[in-house]
Design brief:
Number of strands: 0
Largest sheet: none
Number of helices: 7
Number of domains: 1
Structural class: mainly alpha
CATH class: Mainly Alpha
CATH architecture: Orthogonal Bundle
Order of helices and strands: HHHHHHH
Shape: globular
Distance between the termini: 30 Å
Oligomer: single chain
Helix content: over 70%
Strand content: under 5%
Length: 207
């Protein structure tokens, strides 16, 4: 193995600080999930009255740990780890959705992880963040619509398509864009000094 290969492998290996910060993001994400669920329950009522699939626009809040975790840690598995552990935290705090949140967290994290993997964990700009959030939202919509425990499995085909489109858009904007903005903001404070994302505030937006 060449020196360059060794450096590349070492750069992708998880350090203690990566694990600790990823766990903190996941724990915070679990709290966000729980709070988001409480708020969504109230906000979704008028949406359901108007057009039920519109509730998909609220889905992005449940995908923030996946995008934020990867944008900060920048190591393979970060999106999947943060999202799954966050879902576990939500379950332990008493999720109204029960144990199904574990699989939801897994598939949403997987959606984001796939996008970052496609770019070989080298691009963390706004377009990639939007795509990662959108993929998480897409997987969320598919899970909610077609899994046996999916809460909108009784929707008509057209309503399912609309719901999936809404979750995809919500994931892109709430999870993708907001996490990207948050990462740049954190980088400016200096708290990301131990990570490659420490330069996020000055990285190009589109390249």
């Amino acid at each position: 193995m060449t020196t360059a290969s060794l450096k590349k492998t070492a750069g992708r290996s998880w350090r203690v600080v990566d694990i600790v910060v990823a766990a903190l993001i996941a724990v915070a994400g679990g709290v966000i999930f729980w709070a988001w669920s409480q708020g969504a329950a109230a906000v979704s009522a008028p949406m359901n009255a108007a057009y039920p699939p519109l509730t998909g626009l609220l889905a992005g809040g449940w995908m923030i740990p996946a995008a934020l975790g990867m944008l900060i840690i920048r190591k393979p598995g970060a999106a999947l780890f943060c999202e799954t552990v966050a879902a576990t935290g939500e379950l332990l705090m008493g999720s109204q959705y029960g144990a199904s949140v574990l699989f939801s967290g897994f598939v949403q994290g997987l959606g984001a992880e796939i996008i970052f993997a496609i770019f070989v964990y080298r691009r963390f700009n706004l377009p990639v963040s939007l795509l990662a959030g959108a993929a998480a939202g897409l997987f969320c919509g598919l899970n909610d619509s077609f899994a046996p425990w999916g809460w909108n499995i009784a929707y008509s085909g057209g309503d399912k398509v609309a719901y999936i489109v809404f979750t995809t858009v919500s994931g892109a904007i709430i999870a993708g864009a907001l996490s990207w903005v948050a990462t740049r903001g954190l980088a400016r404070t200096g708290v990301l000094a131990p990570f490659a994302s420490r330069k996020a505030a000055t990285e190009p937006v589109f390249s």
